[in-house]
Amino acid sequence: MSESRPHTHADVTRTIVDSSLRQRVKRIMLVVTAGPDEGSRLQTSRGRVTIGRSGVNDLVLTDTLVSGIHVELLVSERGVLARDLESTNGTAVGEVLIREAWLSPGMSLSLGETTIELRSTDEVPVALSNRPQFGAMWGDSPSMRQLFAVLERIAPTDMSVLIGGETGSGKELVARALHDESPRAERPFVVLDCGSLPRELAEAAILGHKKGSFTGALSDRAGCFEDADTGTLFLDEIGELPLELQPKLLRVLDRREVQRIGETRVRPVDVRVVAATHRDLRAMVSRGEFREDLYFRLSVMTVDLPPLRKRGEDIGLLADKFLSDFARAQQKPVLRLSPAARASLLAQPWPGNVRELKNTIIRAAYLARGQLIEPPDLHVGRRPAPPTAPAGEVADGVPLVSPEILAMPFKQAKQAVLDQFERRYLQHLLAQTGDNLSRAAAEAGLTRYYLRELLKRLGLRKGKEESS
Prior knowledge:
By secondary structure, the protein is of the alpha/beta class. 33% of the residues lie in helices and 23% in strands. The protein has 16 helices and 26 strands. The strands form eight sheets. It has a six-stranded antiparallel β-sheet.
């Protein structure tokens, strides 16, 4: 969108109502043609398909030479891209081992003793919502209208929902909208941020505690499940929940009852659970970092938010909405984006997604000198690229792979190189964000808690904690 006239909600609604309310998406058929699972098949229109021995895969194999999550297929308008996920025994197309390769119908993948043929690809229609918004989310792109159609169907139910998406894409807005559009709308909506929970207090935050049950328990306290009773509990960044606490959460979800720390009494709870994460829980399950049974319990329904860079047609709509909200809050006339400013927004990659766009627009609204926002007001596209060095050379005087590292055992050497990369990356990140942890976490796609722990481990922790 590069036109200067801002969208109105009526424009968006008219566009959607006049459409066929259908979008065609690619569907693939996979058939196991050799191996222990010969004859198994999968037909799906998912954009990402994983194959392996773990039960979290879309196509589950029993071949013992296949890794937990062995290979993924990324299905898009461009075609089907196969990627080996650092499997133990590799993936081949024909006689060639691949890291990634484009597949056409009739081509086969070989993994372990198993051969899988991409039998066919076709297109099937999927429903689109006739609304340009769901809750506080706005979007007139096909991907968002498809998402809204799904959310409209599952909101009235009590099923558990797992929301995936990059940092800043609006996962909490999805959870809030599911609650507001459900029969529980007038009941509590409780948020538990698993990424910011101190490990020693996480169990009490979930279950509650009795006075005196541990040091610091100065009074009886209900946990998040009791607080959310008859309503919705949103478990944000569920992938950060410590592994030792996951069985306790699973027990509550299965039995729908909690037992506070220090008590013998069991309290029933009636809670709908919505969880969200920016991490790949399937890969975490495969690595033993997340319980498979908990994954299945949380992901009765899975929805994935597309990143802003993949729905560029929504950038102008969202920018105009943020300007309208700003004007209403400040009781000022609504500012407009110049054509050049609008084009500048469309050219950005938006690693921080909708949250980054909103911050950019609000900052520009404060900085603009007239009624028209120009590119200089946006302050985008000015961040220098991280320093790089060709293989075999040095960066900041440090060899990329030093002789000392090469002399180490493989596992130890790999960790040393990783630590070196993380240290330089985080030093650069902190320098670019003025040591602001919240901003640094958003730009890196990490939780603030995880970034803080990473800085501690690498000896880069600052004495102060900045807030956004």
